[in-house]
Each structure stands twice: as structure tokens, then as C-alpha cells.
């Protein structure tokens, strides 16, 4: 029996082919992967936001810094480790019905994905904690966009609390898939 497709390909189906080559390449990686890149981080704008960011292991604010991304995949999920200078952030991605989910311990983010020729956009639909759906007024607005250019996978993630207070924002580059981007 052949291995199932990686989770992003299974979730998006034919729409996966619309994505930029670098984004397709990144989400086609399998096995144990380590990628090096750079990232710029903006930290929480409020004291309570900084406490919450620390508790869930979000990275601290910094100018451009080295960044290591590690991924371990199997047929059911992808385990991501992001190594920032200040913290290590781990999560598990899997499919649950019509959603791609990302879990940080007991906190689970439920995303809808939109694929175009320019980018992959992850739209947060809900957040659960220990299986209980959090009220919308307590959930940050999350913008997660992935693009590609000249063999570089680019990501831009931003989370804001209600009232437009920054929780975290980080954008970066992973230099991968040069062969596919040149095609």
C-alpha cells in the first residue's frame, strides 16, 4: 500500500496545484526535515499579551535572526518545531473533518485553507482548549499567509487580540526547493 499524500495535499486536493512552486514544495516534504532561514518577530503590545505569549511559548520580539524549522511527518500528522533565538515552539498539524488543525498542547486552532496562484492563506475558524470551543470575543484574529519567490518559501503570521492588540507577528524565509522554483 502506498503512503498517503502529505496532509496539505490531502486537504486541498486539486487546489494544491494552484500554489506557488515553493509553497507546494514545502508542503510536499516528508520524513524528518530540518530547514534554516531567517525571521523577524514583533511581540505582544500589552502586558497581559506578553504573559500569554510566554505561557504558550511564542517567540520574543527581535530583529532579523536565524531560525530553524524542523518537521517530522507520518501518515496522520506533521510535528513542527520552530527554533527561535528566544524560545522553541512546537505544534502538531492534522486533519479533522473539513479543517486543518494545529495543536499547541491542549490548545487547538481550526483552520480553513485557501489556495491561489499567489499564496496559501490559513483562516482561523475557531479555537478549542481541552476540547471546549472558546468564545469568539476571546479568540485572537490570525492571519497566516505563505508565498514563494526565487526558491524561497516565505511566511507571514500575525495574531491580534480583540481590540486590535498585537499578540505576535513573525515573518521569515526558508531557502528551499530551488530546483522546483526554477522549473
Provide structural commentary.
This protein is mainly beta. The chain has one domain: Beta Barrel (Lipocalin), CATH 2.40.128. Helices cover 14% and strands 52% of the residues. The chain has four helices and eleven strands; from the N terminus they run H-H-E-H-E-E-E-E-E-E-E-E-E-E-H. It has helices spanning 7-12, 21-26, 47-55, 178-182, and strands at residues 32-42, 62-73, 77-83, 88-96, 99-104, 107-115, 120-129, 132-133, 141-149, 152-161, 165-175. The protein has a ten-stranded antiparallel β-barrel. Strand 3 (77-83) and strand 4 form a beta hairpin. It is globular and about 45 Å long.
| Mean pLDDT across all amino acids | 90
Work out the radius of gyration: 16 Å
CATH class: Mainly Beta
CATH architecture: Beta Barrel
Q: Could you tell me the number of beta strands?
A: 11
Spans with pLDDT under 50 lasting ≥5 residues? 178-183
Helicity level: 10-25%
Succession of helices and strands:
HHEHEEEEEEEEEEH
Find the CATH topology. Answer: Lipocalin
**Structural class per helix/strand content?**
mainly beta
Share in β-strands:
over 45%
Q: How many domains comprise the coordinates? A: 1
Task: Tell me about the largest β-sheet.
Answer: 10 strands, antiparallel, barrel
- Using the alpha-carbon principal axes, give the shape: globular
Spatial strand arrangement across the major sheet: 1-2-3-4-5-6-7-9-10-11
Please, how many helices?
A: 4
Cα separation of the termini: 30 Å
Can you lay out the helices and strands and say which pair or pack?
Elements: H1 7-12, H2 21-26, E1 32-42, H3 47-55, E2 62-73, E3 77-83, E4 88-96, E5 99-104, E6 107-115, E7 120-129, E8 132-133, E9 141-149, E10 152-161, E11 165-175, H4 178-182
Antiparallel strand pairs: 1-2, 1-11, 2-3, 3-4, 4-5, 5-6, 6-7, 7-8, 7-9, 9-10, 10-11
Amino acid at each position: 500500500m502506498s503512503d498517503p499524500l502529505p496532509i496539505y495535499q490531502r486537504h486541498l486536493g486539486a487546489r494544491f496545484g494552484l500554489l506557488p512552486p515553493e509553497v507546494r514544495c514545502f508542503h510536499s516534504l516528508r520524513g524528518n526535515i530540518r530547514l534554516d532561514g531567517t525571521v523577524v518577530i514583533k511581540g505582544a503590545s500589552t502586558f497581559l499579551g506578553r504573559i500569554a505569549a510566554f505561557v504558550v511559548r511564542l517567540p520574543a520580539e527581535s530583529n532579523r535572526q536565524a531560525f530553524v524549522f524542523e518537521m517530522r511527518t507520518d501518515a496522520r500528522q506533521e510535528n513542527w518545531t520552530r527554533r527561535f533565538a528566544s524560545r522553541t515552539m512546537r505544534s502538531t498539524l492534522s486533519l479533522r473533518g473539513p479543517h486543518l488543525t494545529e495543536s499547541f498542547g491542549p490548545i487547538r486552532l481550526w483552520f480553513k485553507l485557501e489556495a491561489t496562484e499567489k499564496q496559501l492563506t490559513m483562516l482561523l475558524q475557531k479555537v478549542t482548549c481541552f476540547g471546549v470551543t472558546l468564545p469568539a470575543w476571546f479568540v485572537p484574529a490570525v492571519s497566516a499567509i505563505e508565498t514563494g519567490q526565487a526558491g524561497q518559501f516565505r511566511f507571514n503570521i500575525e495574531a491580534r487580540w480583540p481590540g486590535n492588540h498585537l499578540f505576535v507577528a513573525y515573518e521569515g524565509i526558508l531557502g528551499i526547493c530551488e530546483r522546483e522554483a526554477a522549473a
